């Protein structure tokens, strides 16, 4: 007799009521088995219970209306193409309009049943919705009587009705095959629906309460599996190969502090205490050091590296780009000018002879501090006694890549730095295997940055101010989103900006140019010229968002600011908060849409990077913030880290309690949970088999 697992792998072509042709259609969505369909969760829902007749609309309040398409039209205006659709409902009409979205014309046909959702206003006696959300209704949906309809991700040639039909057919035959992974007592304790109730309700809920209960069950399960994997990873790191015990004794502490020409902030002191506590143990440190732009993370990392060197160990600092690696190396050179500690910069494009000599010195243990890019990870780089690895997390290393460096018999301690403040819920998932240290304050003497959102008519006034400050001896940046012109976006290119400024408001000043397509030598030369003051204004893409530290640069113009995320805008602004003079940043945008307005007004309103990171996370999701798709951890299927924060906290607490009580999840009642953890995250997190 076939097991539940085998039954769920039944091809769709063998499911009663699904023809081979429809099975082929589902393959376009990567749905090939009964299991694929059951766990193909809707991306949203159409709530037909919340539809209001056009006659009952109220101005500027969000509603959904349902009607028949009477007419579709398109016209050109000075603002671009405008598409309009006129719908009717019981003799009442409403017009939906879209600016600069000509493709909307193809979405409608006369006689269609549609639902439009948005805010309506009356214009010349006719209700009008600007950029409403559209759902084309199929005939069956008009008569099915369902109050809540699932909306699935689709592919060309596949309709919602087809996916719903296939899903119903699979549920009917395989809904009872699903095996429960939680013990009955656990379900009761945690207020969770059984899986055989949750799966049908997530696809075809009878009401919003049923949908909420189904979502809670499936979100909790997904987040618990992830948090169990991270808790197991932490446990295995702590009980694996021991690390060298590197105590920051009073003598070592005093020697390090003598090298620092400034007082540490309270936040830096707290981070150093936490890191020193970890370094003194034989358990390898795994810690994330978070701090806002300019909070002094590098100095804290240097302290830890010097503790390692004081114990005869080596330390490696790995940066995402050569620009940032060189910046870190320059910081170390400046602070360690009076130190006997040997340091070196290891980059990918070094001359062969120079590289070979440096590798020999690293292998012999003659170099204590090594700064570099991913070149440090290459197989021919061998450390004699690697006691500490510091990783600048801006290059989005995943959990697996953090453990690739080894040297000698012991495991090194790991310190991961984040150049972007990370929302707590993301830190609990992306970096859930790490302890957290946060530097909340900024070094004394740092001046605030005044930030403005300027309209086009204010441009001349801004450039007058910009040039006045340049004449006072300051320097500035002009940030442009694109290297080359894009007709589709309407954005100015880098070269266009350079030409117009060189022949316009900045013609009296020395200008530099830097972008990601320049070779490394040209990039370094442009940045060094700016750092040395040989150029007064650096016109650049976002390549300068990390690793460029010029205290005299206090001015920034951001063109096309609507093409950057909040976190990136904040990083860019951080270039002009490095010194003793106040900074001035002005953003220009092409669009003034609601989402742009929300983002830019938030940027202007605060310089708190932690608050902006939370806002950016809420507006754009985790993928944009940290590139989670690059982390190696599989994406979440149903959980939303912003919306499901409370469930995430609950799942994290429960996972930690389970692993603390049973590190191998060996309890027979959790056998299926253990199997799911290994199947989903075993490879990504390099988990040794548990239990």
Description:
There is one protein chain. This protein has 691 residues and is an alpha/beta fold. It has four domains: 62 residues, DNA polymerase, domain 1; 103 residues, Beta Barrel (OB fold (Dihydrolipoamide Acetyltransferase, E2P)); 190 residues, Rossmann fold, CATH 3.40.50.300; 158 residues, Rossmann fold (3-Layer(aba) Sandwich), CATH 3.40.50. It is 37% helix and 19% strand. The protein is built from 23 helices and 21 strands. The strands form four sheets. Strands 11-12-10-13-14-9-15 form a seven-stranded parallel β-sheet, sandwiched between helices. Strands 16-21-20-17-19-18 form a six-stranded parallel β-sheet, sandwiched between helices. The protein has a five-stranded mixed barrel with strand order 2-3-4-6-5. A hairpin with a 2-residue loop joins β5 and β6. The longest helix is centred in the N-terminal third of the chain and has 31 residues. The protein is globular, with a radius of gyration of 29 Å.
Descriptors for this entry?
single chain; 691 residues; alpha/beta; OB fold (Dihydrolipoamide Acetyltransferase, E2P); Rossmann fold; 4 domains; six-stranded parallel sheet; 37% helix
By CATH, the topology of the largest domain is: Rossmann fold
The averaged pLDDT comes out at 87
Oligomeric state of the chains present here: single chain
Report the count of strand segments.
Answer: 21
Low-confidence stretches: 624-630
Question: What share of the residues does DSSP label as strand, in percent?
Answer: 15-25%
The geometry reads as globular
CATH homologous superfamily title of the largest domain: P-loop containing nucleotide triphosphate hydrolases
- Rg, nearest Å: 29 Å
The separation of the N and C termini measures 28 Å
Largest sheet descriptor = 7 strands, parallel
Approximately how much helix is present in the residues?
Answer: 25-40%
CATH class of the largest domain: Alpha Beta
Structural class: alpha/beta
Number of domains: 4
Task: Using the 3D structure, state the CATH architecture of the largest domain.
Answer: 3-Layer(aba) Sandwich
DSSP helical segment count: 23
């Amino acid at each position: 007799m076939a097991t539940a697992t085998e039954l769920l792998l039944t091809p769709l072509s063998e499911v009663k009521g699904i023809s081979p042709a429809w099975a082929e259609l589902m393959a376009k969505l990567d749905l090939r088995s009964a299991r694929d369909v059951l766990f193909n969760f809707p991306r949203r829902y159409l709530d037909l219970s919340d539809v209001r007749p056009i006659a009952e609309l109220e101005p500027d309040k969000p509603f959904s209306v349902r009607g028949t398409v009477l007419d579709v039209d398109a016209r050109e205006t000075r603002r671009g193409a405008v598409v309009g659709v006129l719908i009717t409902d019981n003799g009442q009409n409403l017009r939906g309009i879209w600016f600069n979205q000509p493709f909307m014309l193809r979405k409608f046909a006369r006689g269609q049943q549609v639902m439009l959702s948005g805010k309506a206003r009356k214009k010349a006696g006719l209700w009008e919705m600007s950029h409403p959300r559209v759902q084309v209704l199929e005939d069956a949906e008009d008569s099915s009587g369902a109050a809540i309809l699932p909306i699935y991700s689709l592919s060309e040639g596949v309709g919602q009705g087809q996916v719903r039909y296939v899903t119903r057919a699979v549920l009917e035959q395989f809904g009872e095959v699903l095996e429960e992974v939680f013990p009955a007592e656990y379900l009761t304790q945690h207020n969770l629906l059984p899986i055989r109730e949750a799966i049908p309700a997530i696809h075809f809920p009878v009401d919003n309460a049923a949908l909420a209960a189904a979502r809670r069950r499936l979100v909790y399960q997904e987040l618990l599996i992830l948090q169990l994997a991270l808790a197991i990873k932490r446990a295995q790191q702590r009980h694996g190969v021991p690390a060298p015990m590197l105590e920051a004794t009073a003598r070592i502490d005093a020697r390090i502090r003598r090298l620092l020409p400034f007082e540490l902030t309270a936040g830096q002191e707290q981070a150093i205490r936490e890191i020193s506590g970890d370094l003194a143990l034989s358990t390898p440190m795994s810690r994330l050091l978070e701090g806002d732009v300019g909070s002094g993370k590098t100095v804290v990392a240097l302290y830890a590296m010097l503790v390692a060197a004081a114990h005869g160990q080596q330390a490696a600092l790995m940066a995402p780009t050569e620009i940032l690696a060189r910046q870190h190396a320059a910081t170390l050179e400046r602070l360690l000018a009076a130190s006997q500690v040997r340091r070196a910069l290891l980059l990918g494009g070094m001359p062969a002879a120079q590289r070979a000599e440096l590798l020999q010195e690293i292998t012999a243990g003659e170099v204590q501090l090594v700064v570099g890019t991913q070149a440090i990870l290459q197989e021919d780089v061998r450390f004699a006694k690697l006691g500490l690895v510091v990783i600048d997390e801006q290059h989005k290393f995943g959990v697996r890549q953090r453990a690739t460096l080894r040297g000698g018999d012991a495991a090194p301690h790991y310190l991961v730095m984040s150049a972007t403040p990370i929302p707590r819920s993301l830190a609990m998932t992306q970096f859930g295997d790490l302890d957290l240290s946060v530097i909340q304050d900024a070094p004394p003497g740092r001046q605030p940055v005044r930030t403005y959102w300027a309209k086009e008519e204010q441009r001349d006034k801004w450039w007058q101010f910009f040039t006045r400050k340049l004449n006072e001896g300051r320097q500035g940046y002009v940030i442009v989103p694109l290297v080359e012109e894009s007709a589709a976006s309407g954005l100015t290119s880098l070269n266009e900006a350079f030409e117009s400024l060189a022949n316009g408001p900045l013609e009296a000043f020395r200008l530099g140019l830097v972008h990601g397509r320049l070779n490394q030598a040209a990039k370094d030369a442009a940045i060094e010229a700016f750092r040395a003051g040989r150029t007064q204004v650096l016109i650049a893409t976002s390549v300068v968002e990390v690793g460029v530290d010029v205290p005299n640069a206090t001015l920034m113009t951001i063109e096309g600011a609507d093409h950057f995320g909040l976190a990136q805008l904040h990083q860019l602004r951080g270039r002009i908060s490095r010194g003793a003079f106040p900074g001035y940043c002005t953003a220009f945008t092409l669009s003034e849409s609601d989402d742009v307005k929300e983002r830019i007004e938030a940027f202007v309103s605060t310089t708190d990077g932690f608050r902006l990171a939370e806002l950016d996370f809420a507006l754009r999701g985790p993928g944009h913030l940290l590139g989670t798709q690059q982390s190696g951890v599989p994406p979440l299927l149903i959980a939303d880290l912003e919306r499901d924060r409370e469930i995430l906290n609950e799942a994290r607490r429960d996972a930690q309690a389970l692993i603390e009580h049973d590190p191998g999840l060996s309890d027979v009642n959790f056998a299926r949970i253990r199997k799911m953890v290994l199947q989903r995250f075993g490879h990504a997190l390099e988990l040794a088999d548990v239990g």
